[in-house]
């Protein structure tokens, strides 16, 4: 069974903060990055003791740069420098130094020359009981392929010299992984794992800014690990990630994501141990719960009534209402204490919980707990149903239900309604806004626990910045989640986070079979919708050549339109509730996207309606 490790370069903060986060996440080992040590206000001996106090083994000190193939006098200087680093390693109490392939313009080529340098370095290391691992950088001057690095190690023929394999440096330049299987396991000293999105960048820029944890990118890291496993390698699996988001985000969250990623990767290519429970098969949204005050409850109930929802239940012991339409259930919670009330006090009115319908709630919870999700338990009254839950985006709850009807039967008094026939069918998708540096974290969270797959990430133009949008969808398309993040501070997504005091659900979309009939019925009940400029409809008319009657209906009802092959998509938006969240009504006709072409128009319209930004005083 491989031990799990991470390099300190992956995280933000000072070295001591990084080490505490790494230990708290549950890692067993750590790579100490040289720059973290150089900037730490303490000795290497202090760092080594800190790691031991945290039950962390230092599996490597790295990197040692520009070593092999140098002319004199640089060559002699390199060996003297290596001796100093060996002294430092003794204080840290680690036995492995990572040497990355030379990038210096002064370096000389030649595999035999490099092998001779490493053999000599191996003698120095062996005299101290140390080891040296050689890693091929994808941009190395003479060695940029792990196969060449292995050939140098093989020719060095020294027990203290081995190869270090890195998934990014192998997969980013699209090197074949098959040759890894022929490397003896005892000559692989360390395996580093990193993923990355597919980008049209030079490999150095790609590496320095956009690496991510396996499962967050597009590289076949599982194939790489399978090749490593075929050698019989049993040493540490470690992360080495350079990522601007990670360096700006929470060290605790990043470390937890890193461990979650390794657990998922290990489960996909198991060597030994107990496999995780399978990813939950999701069947849709069970209910969505809104935390509100008494006053907000009244205004929200009015809006839901205008949208055709009817009050179908009242909680037997709490100030909680059930509102229903089609297969959609919404909960309005204005109870003066408990989790929902705490969420309201922290974030204001908005979604505090989402319940998902899954095939097996107990197994879903077991998988979530194994992946380091935070569980949540709330006191329940006599006879009330206890629903398993974990913490989700922005501290909200994610419930897991197998039989949603059981919840309503036990906890709610049913209410009769004479409301008109249902126009809305199901929850089409839920859109959550979060800081940009959290998006990769929640991507791994959702796809690790649930049977959700990523669609290509979209870049949406807000009037005052760009928003990154990542859609996740299950195989049956019964569950769609959209994650939105922006590094621009004035976008609607960023303003939601600031005004909501954290990440959360910004909007919920409901689907219907006839959007024109549904909107007409809603308007008859007093509903009003987001105003879309006439210029938009002029463009749609020119672009798609829709008939006059359809165009008039779109204009009159403020409905947006998009086409995808033979598929058509219609969408309309409510005004924002307290500038915090809003609803969307959609109709899909063989269309699988989210109307990305209309997003900029919608965002501009919402920006016009939102409260002006409060600008700081300059005096």
- What is the CATH topology of the largest domain? TIM Barrel
Instruction: Report Rg.
Output: 28 Å
Please, what is the average pLDDT? 93
Question: What is the helix content?
Answer: 25-40%
Strand content: 25-35%
Q: Give the spatial strand order of the biggest sheet.
A: 14-15-16-13-9-12-11-10-17
Structural class: alpha/beta
Number of domains: 3
Instruction: Profile the largest sheet.
Output: 9 strands, mixed
**Could you name the CATH class of the largest domain?**
Alpha Beta
CATH superfamily of the largest domain: Divalent-metal-dependent TIM barrel enzymes
Shape: elongated
CA(first)-CA(last) distance: 62 Å
Oligomer kind: single chain
Any overview of this molecule?
The longest helix has 19 residues, at 74-92. The chain is of the alpha/beta class and 619 residues long. It folds into 3 domains: 4-268, TIM Barrel, CATH 3.20.20; 282-414, 2,3-Dihydroxybiphenyl 1,2-Dioxygenase, domain 1 (Roll), CATH 3.10.180.10; 424-609, 2,3-Dihydroxybiphenyl 1,2-Dioxygenase, domain 1 (Roll), CATH 3.10.180. Strands 14-15-16-13-9-12-11-10-17 form a 9-stranded mixed beta sheet, sandwiched between helices.
């Amino acid at each position: 069974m491989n031990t799990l490790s991470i390099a300190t370069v992956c995280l933000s903060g000072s070295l001591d903060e990084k080490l505490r986060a790494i230990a708290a996440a549950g890692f067993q080992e750590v790579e100490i990055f040289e720059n973290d040590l150089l900037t730490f206000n303490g000795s290497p001996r202090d760092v080594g003791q800190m790691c031991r106090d945290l039950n962390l083994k230092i599996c490597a000190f790295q990197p040692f740069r520009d070593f092999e193939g140098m002319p004199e006098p640089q060559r002699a200087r390199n060996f003297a420098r290596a001796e100093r680093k060996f002294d430092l390693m003794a204080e840290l109490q680690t036995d492995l130094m990572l040497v990355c392939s030379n990038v210096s313009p002064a370096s000389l080529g030649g595999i035999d020359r490099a092998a001779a340098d490493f053999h000599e370095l191996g003698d120095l290391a062996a005299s101290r009981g140390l080891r040296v691992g050689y890693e091929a950088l994808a941009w190395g001057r003479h060695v940029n392929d792990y196969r060449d690095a292995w050939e140098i190690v093989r020719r060095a023929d020294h027990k203290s010299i081995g190869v270090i394999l890195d998934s990014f440096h192998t997969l980013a330049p699209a090197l074949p992984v098959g040759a890894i299987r022929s490397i003896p396991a005892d000559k692989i000293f360390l395996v580093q794992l990193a993923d990355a999105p597919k980008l049209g960048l030079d490999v150095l820029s790609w590496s320095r800014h956009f690496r991510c944890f396996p499962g967050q990118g597009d590289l076949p890291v599982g194939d790489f690990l399978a090749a490593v496993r075929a050698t019989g390698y049993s040493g540490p699996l470690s992360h080495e990630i350079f990522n601007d988001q990670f360096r700006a985000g929470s060290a605790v969250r990043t470390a937890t994501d890193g461990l979650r990623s390794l657990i998922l990767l290990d489960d996909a290519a198991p060597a030994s141990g107990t496999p995780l429970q399978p990813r939950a098969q999701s069947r849709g949204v069970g209910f969505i719960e809104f935390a509100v005050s008494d006053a907000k409850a009244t205004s929200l109930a009015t809006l839901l009534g205008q949208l055709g929802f009817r009050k179908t239940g009242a909680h037997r012991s709490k100030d909680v209402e059930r509102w229903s339409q089609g297969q959609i259930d919404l909960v309005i919670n204005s109870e003066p204490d408990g989790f929902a009330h705490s969420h309201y006090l922290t974030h204001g009115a908005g979604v505090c919980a989402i319940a998902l319908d899954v095939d097996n709630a107990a197994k879903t919870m077991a998988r979530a707990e194994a992946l380091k999700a935070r569980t949540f338990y709330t006191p329940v009254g006599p006879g009330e149903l206890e629903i398993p839950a974990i913490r989700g985006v922005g501290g909200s709850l994610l419930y897991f239900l197998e039989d949603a009807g059981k919840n309503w039967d036990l906890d709610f008094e049913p209410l009769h309604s004479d409301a008109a026939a249902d126009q809305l069918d199901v929850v089409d998708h839920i859109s959550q806004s979060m800081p940009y540096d959290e998006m990769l974290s929640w991507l791994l969270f959702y796809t690790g626990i649930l049977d959700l797959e990523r669609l290509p990430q979209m870049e949406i133009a807000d009037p005052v910045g760009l928003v990154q949008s990542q859609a996740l969808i299950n195989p049956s398309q019964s569950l769609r989640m959209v994650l939105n993040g922006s590094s621009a501070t004035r976008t609607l997504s960023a303003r939601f986070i600031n005004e909501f005091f954290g990440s959360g659900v910004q909007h919920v979309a409901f689907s219907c079979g006839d959007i024109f009939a549904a909107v007409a019925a809603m308007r008859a009940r007093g509903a009003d919708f987001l105003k879309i400029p006439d210029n938009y409809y002029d463009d749609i008319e020119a672009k798609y050549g829709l008939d006059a009657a359809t165009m008039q209906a779109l204009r009159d009802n403020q409905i947006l339109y998009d086409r995808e092959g033979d598929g058509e998509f219609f969408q309309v938006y409510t005004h924002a509730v307290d500038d915090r969240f809003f609803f969307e009504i959609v109709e899909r006709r063989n269309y699988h996207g989210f109307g990305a072409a209309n997003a900029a128009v919608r965002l501009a319209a919402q920006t016009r309606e939102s409260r002006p930004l409060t600008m700081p005083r300059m005096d």
